[in-house]
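Exercise 7. Predict the structure of DUF3093 domain-containing protein from Planosporangium mesophilum.
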Amino acid sequence: MWVPWWLWLPALAFAALLAAEVYLGAPGLKTWIPYAVVLPATAGALWALGRLRVAVEEGELRVDDARLPARFVGGVTVLGAAEKRILLGTAAHPYAFVVQRPWIKGAVQVHLDDPADPTPYWVVSSRRPAALAATLLAARAAGESGTAHGDIAGS
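Solution. The predicted structure, encoded as tokens:
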């Protein structure tokens, strides 16, 4: 779920402005030190925000380090931007598991069928929500065999 280039530009510009402010506020400081600290830290933060991996592998949905076995999937709903906004806003459930990135418009809502789990559903941002939903439903249909799997990296 990489951060798009058009968000890098204002973030790095803001970081450069912040570095300039730090330099102006501390006379005698080497000019390059605030830039050498703030700009790489900003780039690292943007990279870390975008490194999240979403995949359906070995019969389970993997969202970064969270795992959901496909046998507990009750259904999958593909969400557009408007549905995602409503589901994360006024219709949000307090126990829902949410991994969303605001720069990604689409998402899937994975309904859980596990009476022992208080989590009613997962909401996961995805650039290709229909493909993620289809892959997850195929993994559920395949059961424990793990024959249906696919990497939805960058979704």
